[in-house]
Amino acid sequence: YESGKGWFPLITETLVEWQQSAYGTSPTDRDSTVVESASDKRKRLLQQQRKRSVSPSEPSRAAKGLRTDTNSASGSLRNKSASNKSIYIQGLPHDVTVDELATAFSKYGIIMEDFATKEPKIKLYRHDDGTLKGDALITYFKPESVSLAITLMDDAPLRLADNSTRIRVSEAQFSKPSIVGPSGSSEPSAKRVVDPKKKKRTMQQLEKKLEWFETDEAEVSDKYRRIVILKHMFTPAELEKDPTLLLDLKEDIRQECEKLGVATNVKLFDTSPDGVVSVKFSEKASATACVELMNGRWFGGRRVSAELYDGRSRYGASQPRETEEETQERLEKFAQWLEQQDDNSP
User: Fold this and answer.
1) What does the alpha-carbon distance between residue 214 and residue 139 come to, in Å, rounded to a whole number?
2) pLDDT at 55
3) What pLDDT, on a 0 to 100 scale, did the predictor assign at position 91?
4) Which of 5, 71, 91, 129 is the most exposed place for a label (fewest CB within 10 A)?
5) pLDDT tens across 215-224, in order?
6) Which spans of this chain does the record mark as coiled coil (predicted)?
């Protein structure tokens, strides 16, 4: 916590490599030393999985009681692992929702839909009294998504910058007649009769979604990899209290970010409750390094969140246009502030 709202660098191994590579190497070499963005990593891992049908490695800390495929001599087990489309999640916060899980895990592939309800196939396990146990089952449309989700989400926080929401993600292991988890949770696998036409239509829709997903990932990855979104940089109340903070904050952020490369635009969304600032760089490598540098740092008593822009979120002002009375009141406050500055001057 820094009461003076100063910048305190958070040195990471990636940042050190990036800075070292700035001397004596070509731009191509420098780019290769920068850590991949999450979007790039998802894309690379997905391509690797499609080229070779290798079963994902088991998480290093397998939960006690969870059945795993440890018998390397069994070809049938390996085949089952390679075609597995479901992941098992542990350690979920007890206020988690299906929508939250769908948002978090749909980044790694298309989530399968229930043929009858059209809802995503996400199962939250509950105690007899209806409270959540903290584990869940998610089924994807393609098995490649399983390895991707495990690689990027296992032992990672479900909610950014909240380490208490760190979760464990592994392949789901099924047994007849139920799925078995470390907490002893199981659900009977009662099969329902599904209309073949409805099933075919749903599968066709999912195939179309998959095409859109892959196209969107490629386009978003290429177009927005130069834009960084910083959150929790200010509060609207702070900007209202000090009219000059907006300009000062933008300049401070620009100076800090230009240590990593040319920042072509810094935009502060003054009405954002999350205190959002966007920084656009001229080079993708600079944006990636900025995420590594800024994410998790403390500024003004708040923990900063930094990520590459996803191409979809909107942070623009949502306030209605000012009335004449509101404009006059704002100008009077600014005039009073200027007078106070003159009185305090030597």
Assistant:
1) 18
2) 42
3) 95
4) 129
5) 555 555 566 7
6) none
